Amino acid sequence: MRKKWMIFCDFDGTITERDMIISIMEKFGRPGWEMLKEDVLAGRISVESGVGQMFAQIPSEEKEQIVKYAQKTAKIRSGFKELLQYCRQEGILFLVTSGGIDFFVKPILSPYVDENRIFCNGSDFSGETIRILWPYGCDEHCDGGCGLCKPAILRRYGANDAKRIVIGDSITDWKAAQMADHVFARSLLLEKCRESAIPHTPFHTFIDVIETLKQWEEECKEVAR
User: Fold this and answer.
1) Which of 1, 126, 210, 213 has the greatest CB tally within 10 Å of its CB?
2) Residue 155: what are its φ and ψ, rounded to 5°?
């Protein structure tokens, strides 16, 4: 009997076609945010530090404008609804593991995913500027300042209990990818998986992911016969 599959799916640039933090910063970010972004991608500062500083420059009173902008501009990658339907049909647990922020991630995903299946960073608008909260920070096995620590979330679900599948696109998915049984990757994450020989499948839409999952299911049936 095969292990159950469990999917940990990134949000920015994966579920959405564009990274929504970058999109929001292009519209609302203050001077200097681009350098913070480059420092994060190059590993010079942690994700927690970089993202926290980016949003700390934006007045809290701009919250509603940002939410409306995010909902209006976010484009969901093709095949997402079909993948969710397939997961429900096959009993595959689908979790969103997002380095994005709750106040725009959850409104965008509310038509698709139950809130209790979404892991993301939090926010506080009680001060003059936006303060980012980190409810899913690094555990005792990680000190990378991940913000939302995807490896820590994967560790909540033991490797003996399920085949852990990571779907992602960027540097924020890399640590989780190294722990996964298999990775569906695009963009920078795809390059890193190729360089390090991490078991992976490239994807462009979520239909690609469904086709591979169906193929695996057929292979399991063949073995069972």
Assistant:
1) 213
2) -65, -20
